[in-house]
Protein 1
Amino acid sequence: MITHRVRATGVTLAATERGDRARPTVLLIHGYPDTQAVWNPVADRLAADCHVVTYDVRGAGASSAPSSDAAYDLDRLAEDTVAVLDALAPGRAVHVVGHDWGAMQAWHLAVHGRLGARLASLTTMGAPCLDHVGHWLRARLRRGALGPVVGQLARSWYMAVLTAPGLARPLWARVGPRWPALLARVEGLAPADDHPAPTIAADGAHGARLYRRNVVRRLRRPHPAPHVEVPVHLIVCTRDRFVSPRLYDGLDAWAPRLSRTALDAGHWVMRSHPDELAGHVASWIEDVERVSLAV
């Protein structure tokens, strides 16, 4: 494992690579309130066959933490991703895998073409595309289908707290020390040396800016016609307490080359089922690479 410091616009990012650069590159993007270390069990397994890149997103772990909400815009996050890949996998096609906010970042990269032809495939779990959510909500409200909307809003209760100015820092000052015990009780995850990160309180407070900057803004004005041409692998965790499987309904309208895999797992699937998840990701990349070579 090799660690790097990568300069991007206004930040320095802590990045890591594993495996042989001659192998297919897979980028793992973590979510909130995690660091890249949440991927360690999966990254170690994938490194046998892939060149694996991870990094702490801005505001998390050992990366810089800007102090303005605007600095956490999805466009800025996309610039960070490109900077990391330019440094660690220059000019190469990349299989992007995202979880939670990392999934929303990955969808944003794909919908807005930020990697161009370098994006080989997309795998997401723990969150859909924010543009899709905006259209999903509008479609159901127009039809009066309030059940799925109310069900998802109940799962997303925490967003009201995180988007409220001034609440995130005192909240995480209290919750941070209790976070390992909360994950153990709610998700059944035993604390490990590398997760949750010791920076969890600061990461939670900084990362709340992701919600304040992006959620209302993107849902109010979603991309008018989101479309993703690359192969997409949607991993649906059927016991996810935060994202209803119904929130993914209709995604194939935006991603015609979409495949779904249902896993009997909770939100932090990379920690609860690392072997199973790594196996699915590795098989997906192998299939995409085989088709690409055939073409």
Note: The chain has a mean pLDDT of 94.
Protein 2
Amino acid sequence: MKVTVAKALGTCFGVQDAIDLAMDDAYRDRLTIIGQLVHNPQVVEDLRTRGVNIVDQLDDSISTPNVMITAHGAPESMHADARAMGYNVIDASCPLVLRVHKAIAGFVREGFHPVVIGQASHVEVKGIVGDLDDYTVIATSDELEKLATHKKIGIVSQTTQQIKHVSDLIDKIRVMYPEMEIRFQDTVCQPTKDRQVAARELTSEADVMIVIGGYNSSNTKKLKMVCDESGVEAYHIERASQLVPGMFEGKEHAGITAGTSTPREVIEEVYLAILSMPGIIVSEASGMPPKEKYLH
């Protein structure tokens, strides 16, 4: 069996910067993160072993002088509340998420009703709309009727959305509301796009795909969707221990991809586990990409 690692996969620069900041020795035992820094169980486990506290919300019990905003971003009102409570606020927001905040604020200033394509319950989306008085979040085409009362809309998307899904929704909105003034700024982040494109390319060769990432990771779920849409059998796992020989039975080419919050070490562990899987004869292996690939 041939084993190939996708050309683009794993931790992006925004996630890596957030992890490095939280791991800084200056904050050891002196830091509380509001929410999950990134949606990856191994990273969360590592943070806890370093004495980092993790709470769900700012109102929870916090005993450290420093609080951190996660890579997913937060509304400015949350920053202000934390400062008012006496905490030193450390902002680990991904710059590409902050770009979405800026884009939607611009639409509002110009009189457009703000629309976000994404999951209303996701922490990133909550951060994007948290300072807005009026907005609409759209996840599927079934929700497009929400827009009927508006004459001007400005649309952004959650950074980890599937590219094709966003494009399809924009096309449907334009057809459904031909008289509406519509502005759209593509805010799906480049690392997400790169990983989706690389996964799609790999599915043209592989007959089984292993998708690595947290089960609560939006971008990892979208990678799994890319694989599913290609018709290739795909498995979403969080760690190497979840691999079983049956996943590769009768397969000739296994592909590996991973979400933007999945560390290189986790990907490498899965890669090596597949190479040494009982009953699997590996005829060709791509090797792991250089470390710098994980920061794109």
Note: The mean pLDDT is 94.
